[in-house]
Write a structure and sequence with these properties.
- This protein is α/β, with parallel strands linked by helices and 381 residues long.
- It contains twelve helices and 13 strands.
- A hairpin with a 5-residue loop joins β12 and β13.
- α8 crosses α10.
- The radius of gyration is 38 Å and the shape is elongated.
Length: 381
Amino acid sequence: MMSGLKDITRYNSSNYTSRDSSSETDSDEGRRRCFKSSSWSRSPRQQLAKLEYMQAGTEAGATGSSCQGLCLNDDRLVLIVDNTRFVVDPALFTAHPNTMLGRMFTSGIEFVRPNERGEYEVAEGMSATVFRSILDYYNHGVIRCPPTVSVQELREACDYLLVPFDASTVKCQNLRGLLHELSNEGARAQMEKFLEELVLPLMVASARRGDRECHVVILLDDDFVDWDEKYPPQMGEEYSQTVNSTAMYRFFKYIENRDVAKQVLKERGLKKIRLGIEGYPTYKEKVKRRPGGRSEVIYNYVQRPFIHMSWEKEEAKSRHVDFQCVKSKSVTNLAEATADPAIDLPPAATVDVDLVAPPQPQHLLLQDNEGDPLANPDAPA
């Protein structure tokens, strides 16, 4: 038995065993921060692409020394997560090759190397309690969220390990938390669809005009816009565009969906993203005549959601005017003025006549034959 093991907890199933090597001293918030800052991306698609890229890059140079061979020699895997050792049967991962652990230990490519004792440190920053719950998916196909673990933390762990997170694989007491996370996943997929089908064509049209940003207002399917060409409304955004979609309007009604949409736009490389609800003029109601013959147009406004995004790369420089230092053409030196051709003197030799003090009157000093000073009759007493 390995030295330094604190205790051994065996489950009803003999497929895996967890061994705690040290007490859990870190707080849940600390683990969560460490988990979020790990080297693996939390996006399932990004993680899957990374694993496929690593596998494609190493298949050509594989020499036969694979992790699978090392694992099957002992017929058991020892995984270390949060200072806790889990003894796992490799057959569990073989049955789920599309998960991250399945790719690591069944693909024949050495994605992770064991330490000096043949143990594998995986899922850095994840708590042992969460990892133990996720192992139930490999054994039973269902993850039961412990009461001490938040649904958000469990979802992040599932994304980290590429384990499916849905109502069929996750069971928990907190239905509100589960439905909230499921709504986030659905909102992400819905926003990506809206972006590709409705918003991106408007952004392309703005880019072809030479613009570097786009302001899109989402109207209902039955909203109509009838502006008077002679008296157009005063808009805050000069080049605002509209899209008629009741489904997209209902989507942006929830603040949680707007947060998800903003995150999707950030991941696509856009900047200066603003999402909210504003008044948009639809049609002219009446025209008032002001003293002096000035007309004031009153439009009917409706509250509709909007999206503003920018793809400008040098936004810090476009708002300012570049000034150049121009040499003064005033002549302050007689030699420079009479020279033909004109000569340029260094800045140190240029004298501004307005800054030269006028000469002060000097008193005459009289001396006698012996050299002694005499009184000056013109000098003041």
